[in-house]
């Protein structure tokens, strides 16, 4: 007599055992995804806290401040895809983590309610700044962009070596060249003062007076020291051996002195007349050093620009895609007597820094008094 067939639901059947194994594997995989999701979410939250609050107050987070931030989104995106199949509840967590990285961690700017451009275009000043890298790049690319933007005033940093192409291009403008600082304007300009900071004992700013269409105003051309030279003192094992840490901390202290000195000089100009501060600050606006020094002025890009607005570095060799900067360290700042209507970042790699352009107008005196 033959044995009765084994039911699929009967304990010990091959089908039931196989189904049980698959269920256990899915459960284990789901738990693994959950663990990695939680760890990643905590890591993103910690990263945001470190770069936005601690920032350059601690040497290790100062390093994070100047490293590329886009790679930090990869774990969140990978976990998001995996969690859609393994644990959909965790997909929401990974989605939020990705948004945090793509937003505040990477410095996304999305201003609301920018001031509309006035109907009288003659009142609008289109101003720009660019570190021209001593003219050793492809300056023609930068000049072509500037022509398309129809600017009225340009300030340049590192205007050394061969900048004849720049000077010839603006030969019919009012120009001024002091050290590494260069000014070009459709309107008359007059040199007022060159500022030398105690930090590193170097010239960090030049201020001029411009006879604009609505009266005189001041423009401060700024170039502060880069963090890069201090970072070069560090190595991969510095967190364990402290190699180069003291040198880097000393360098950072000098940078902070320089930033505070230069910002104080710029604010002195704002006491006298409407003031615009443009240049290569060599620090993002999220830097604690920037906040300490420059927070009394407003960033044009954060007021009227959209996107990340990265300006440097454009030429990075083989370890990073060319013309793909990851830092916004070139800025246009303004005091409360100005309206900013738009702010754009250049696109070319004619220099190691992209240009920054803003369209601004002076506020009516009554509007300034009401604020």
From TrEMBL:
Signal peptide: none annotated. Residues 1-22 are annotated as: Disordered. Residues 128-353 form the Endonuclease/exonuclease/phosphatase domain. Keywords: Endonuclease, Exonuclease, Hydrolase, Membrane, Nuclease, Transmembrane, Transmembrane helix. GO terms for molecular function: endonuclease activity; exonuclease activity. InterPro entries: Endo/exonu/phosph_ase_sf, Endo/exonuclease/phosphatase. Gene3D superfamilies: Endonuclease/exonuclease/phosphatase (3.60.10.10). The chain crosses the membrane at residues 28-54, 66-85, 92-116. This is Endonuclease/Exonuclease/phosphatase family protein. It comes from Maioricimonas rarisocia.
């Amino acid at each position: 007599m033959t044995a009765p067939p084994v039911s699929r639901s009967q304990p010990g059947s091959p089908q039931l055992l196989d189904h049980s194994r698959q269920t256990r594997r899915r459960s284990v995989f789901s738990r693994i995804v959950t663990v990695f999701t939680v760890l990643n979410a905590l890591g993103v939250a910690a990263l945001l806290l470190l770069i936005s609050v601690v920032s350059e107050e601690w040497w290790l987070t100062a390093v994070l401040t100047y490293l590329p931030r886009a790679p930090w989104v990869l774990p969140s995106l990978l976990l998001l895809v995996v969690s859609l199949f393994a644990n959909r509840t965790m997909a929401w967590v990974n989605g939020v983590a990705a948004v945090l990285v793509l937003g505040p961690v990477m410095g996304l700017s999305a201003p609301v309610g920018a001031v509309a451009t006035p109907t009288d275009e003659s009142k609008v000043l289109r101003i720009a700044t660019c570190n021209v890298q001593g003219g050793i790049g492809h300056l023609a690319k930068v000049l072509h962009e500037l022509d398309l933007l129809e600017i009225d005033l340009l300030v340049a940093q590192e205007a050394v070596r061969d900048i004849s192409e720049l000077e010839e291009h603006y030969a019919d403008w009012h120009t001024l060249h002091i050290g590494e600082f260069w000014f070009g304007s459709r309107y008359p300009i007059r040199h007022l003062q060159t500022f030398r900071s105690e930090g590193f004992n170097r010239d960090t700013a030049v201020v001029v007076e411009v006879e604009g269409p609505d009266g005189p105003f001041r423009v401060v051309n700024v170039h502060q020291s880069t963090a890069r030279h201090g970072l070069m003192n560090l190595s991969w094992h510095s967190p364990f051996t402290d190699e180069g840490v003291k040198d880097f901390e000393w360098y950072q202290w000098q940078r902070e002195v320089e930033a505070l000195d230069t910002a104080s000089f710029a604010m002195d100009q704002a006491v006298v007349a409407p003031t615009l501060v443009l240049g290569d600050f060599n620090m993002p606006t999220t830097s604690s050093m920037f906040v300490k020094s420059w927070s009394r002025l407003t960033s044009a890009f954060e007021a009227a620009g959209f996107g990340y607005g990265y300006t440097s570095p454009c030429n990075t060799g083989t370890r990073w895609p060319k013309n793909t900067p990851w830092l916004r360290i070139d800025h246009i700042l303004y005091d409360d007597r100005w309206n900013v209507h738009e702010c754009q970042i250049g696109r070319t790699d004619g220099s190691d820094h992209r240009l920054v352009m803003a369209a601004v107008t002076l506020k009516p005196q009554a509007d300034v008094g009401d604020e």
